[in-house]
Amino acid sequence: MADITRRFGRRHLRSAPTAHIRHHKRGRLTHDGPGLSFWYRSLSAALSEVPVNDRELAMAFHARTADFQDVTVQATVTYRISDPAEAAARIDFSIDPDTGVWRGAPLEQIATLLTETAQQHTLDVLARTPLAAALTDGVAAVRESVGTGLAAEPRLPATGLDVVAVRVVAIRPEAEVERALRTPAREQVQQEADRATYERRAVAVERERAIAENELASQIELARREERLVDQRGTNARREAEEKSAADGVRTEAEAARTVRLASAEAEAARETGAARAEAQAAWLRVHAEVDPRTLHALAATRLADNLPRIDNLTLSPDVLTGLLAKLGGPRPEAGA
């Protein structure tokens, strides 16, 4: 919208670079171009403001496919006014000289023209296309048909309009049909998910079986090693017992031999001692046999005296003394001695 100000009964207009201004005064064109700024009188001025920038027109309309299914088409058309003079001559772009506001609705008129033209070409394409093909390849077909149809529409150049681009956002069926169409794909995805789950479970079971087999093999190997260990321990115990028995035998034999040697030595010593004692006894007997009996009696008395207790006083009667001396072979005592 143009910026209009008042000064001393006159008006001043200042437009944007994207707005084409046409100023007529008394039927003659006095100003024509984008981004103008000038003074004018409101009572004698006829002003038109034509936007020359690219504009986006979003549209949504219903169509029916070849198999009689309703679909909704969402599209966007980018257009611009390439010839402002033609557009101002065919469409009312006049503005109020006091406020700068459009007197009519020119952009809505252009939107209606473009929407109906695009809808016509869209219906023509979808009416020959089944629903499944429309949902898969219909976007490209509709975009191409709408673009070609708008380019070939004679009214658009006559109005000074150029279509810059056509974009078809989506083609969607009714909600119930869309759910029905999604069901096979959803079931297939679910089947794929179930298969993946089963495969994952199968892999997990296989891994668990492999782990169990490894554990069983480990237990078997451990039992085998324990058996070998028990056998080795038994062998070691038997060997130790044999070694101990052999050592005990050797020790016993050594002790027996030592005992025998000791006994032999003691017997030999006893024999030698006995022989020596026998010789000494024999010699003693020989000596005593050669000695006078009275000497022997004296020696016996001496030994007897050595073994008797101490006697301080001994009184012998003459009879005892006479008998004793008679036995010893000595002289008899005289009477009164």
Write the layout of secondary structure elements.
Layout: E1 3-7, E2 10-14, E3 19-25, E4 28-34, E5 37-40, E6 45-51, E7 55-64, E8 70-81, H1 84-90, E9 94-95, H2 106-126, H3 131-152, H4 155-158, E10 161-173, H5 175-290, H6 293-307, H7 318-328
Antiparallel strand pairs: 1-2, 2-5, 3-4, 3-6, 6-9, 7-8, 8-10
Helix pairs in contact: 2-3
Largest sheet: 4 strands, antiparallel
Mean pLDDT: 85
Q: Choose one word for the global shape.
A: rod-shaped
- Helix tally equals 7
Distance between the termini: 200 Å
Rg computed from alpha carbons, rounded to a whole number of angstroms: 76 Å
In percent, how helical is the residue content? 55-70%
| Helix-strand makeup class | alpha+beta
Number of strands: 10
Strand content: 15-25%
Unreliable residue runs: none
Descriptive notes:
There is one protein chain. With 337 residues, this protein is α+β, with helices and mostly antiparallel strands. It is 58% helix and 21% strand. It contains seven helices and ten strands. It has helices spanning 84-90, 106-126, 131-152, 155-158, 175-290, 293-307, 318-328, and strands at residues 3-7, 10-14, 19-25, 28-34, 37-40, 45-51, 55-64, 70-81, 94-95, 161-173. A four-stranded antiparallel sheet has the order 4-3-6-9, with helices on one face. A three-stranded antiparallel sheet has the order 1-2-5, with no helix packed on it. The chain has a three-stranded antiparallel sheet with strand order 7-8-10. A hairpin with a 2-residue loop joins strand 3 and strand 4. Helix 2 crosses helix 3 (131-152). The model has no long low-confidence stretch (mean pLDDT 85).
